[in-house]
Amino acid sequence: MSTRFAFGIGLVVALLVGAMGAGDGRSTATASDRRDTPLRVMAFNIFLGGTYNGGEENLRQIVEFVRAERPDVVFMVETYGSGATIEEGLNEGLPPDRRYRGIQITREPGQPADDDNLWLFTRYPVAEVYPRVTDAPVTSFHFGGARLTMPSGREVNVFTVWLDALERAWFPTDATALDRAYGFEPGHTEEQIAATDHSARYAKAVTILEQILPRLVPDEDAPVVIGGDLNTLSAYDWSKRFAGAYSHEGLTVDWPVTNAFADAGFTDTYRDVYPDAGRYPGRTWSPYWGFGYSPARIDYVWTRGRGLDVASSHTRTDRLPRHEGAAVDEEYPFYSDHGALVTDLVVEGGGGAPFGRPRLDRDRPVAPPERPKGRPVDAGGVSATSEQSGFEAGRVLDGDPDTFWASSFAPAQPLPEAITLDLEKPRTVTGLRYVGHLIGRYYEEPGYVAGIDRYRLSVSRDGEHFVQVGSGRLERDRRPQWIPVERGTSGAVRYVRLTADEGFTDHAGAAELTAYERR
Question: What's the pTM?
Fold first, then answer.
């Protein structure tokens, strides 16, 4: 298995960025020389034209989000009829020399107007838009790009890519990690998981790397940037080196597609900046459907060529602060079901920085879930404001994370919904351990039929008069989460209530709930 990273030959590092914060993340270059050119690129699958989750308002916010990141090049996937609107929004109020040019990559003969999957947006002059690819099984629905000109005349080749989602790569990975974590019989072997790449993705990746690219860019030293959605995971991330990382559960998967990119001399820019895949998983799937248990990094920026260096990289999976709290934010925590990936590159000898030099952002390391404080309490009973037949409230106490409580969805009950634990006698409660339900371990979607987004935690001595002691927002994933008591309760309490004010698909649910008390 190849886990190597291909670095450009003869790189000149203008300034090592060693004081950008603690942790394993690192930056390999920065455009400090006036002759060098910073090149910020973004890979972003906007999910069905950006209007599925929130309509035109969400699309408007996508444009504001992209503008806030200040990319020079955007590799956009699932654009689907929104390209012209996005181009217009990106350019609103900009002077002519700072405007973006939108390039429709997907342009199959006779295609419907809203079937334009891939687009490319660039602020740099376009020397050539490459011809539509016709190398079966790859079409312009999967790959295409352009050659850009830097201020000095140096050229950079940029390509947007999308590889098939079926068969899913992440779902069996996540399911098998969950099986191992909870002692279930694994539903997939490591070889079966890796084989999902061979259904369609691998053949397309090899065609791109061995046929299309050599024809379009015959000079192997020429700078090339490929960005987009590969719908598969990283062989480096899932190598033996990280088998012991939290939520990997000993899994090692030799992913063929990302191996092919590495073997072709490409650098995985995010992992180049953050070599520790355990602390920096870089997950981009899925802020909408739920991050699940194991991390899914399926969106990439790859680079190859002389004089093209990596400076920094970061992911985005939350809305801008000014967009939080709006109606569209309640059900859709981000603008898409994919996170966005931004990478800062340096083009050596590019001729300066016509669009300025962006501040280099960094991802924060991801720690395992917070450990509960105190000792667990065996609740004697549980009740809920509503429950669906077959998904009764008592399931949160059965010790089986594969069963769960769900509030009524036939008929539907509007939120808020609440579930209350009876601890049988007064206790000094420190918090609640919450596990979101695991249904969907073997399905094509995470299966969040019911879950809790925004919550309130309340306690009571008599079961009638409750005092709120905490509130917040839970992650849409399957890892245990700690809900602390944030305010004092003036003594011991018998009842602990978790209220769901917002939930995925407007239903509340939980697989396991455990109260903890002070030791």
Answer: 0.89
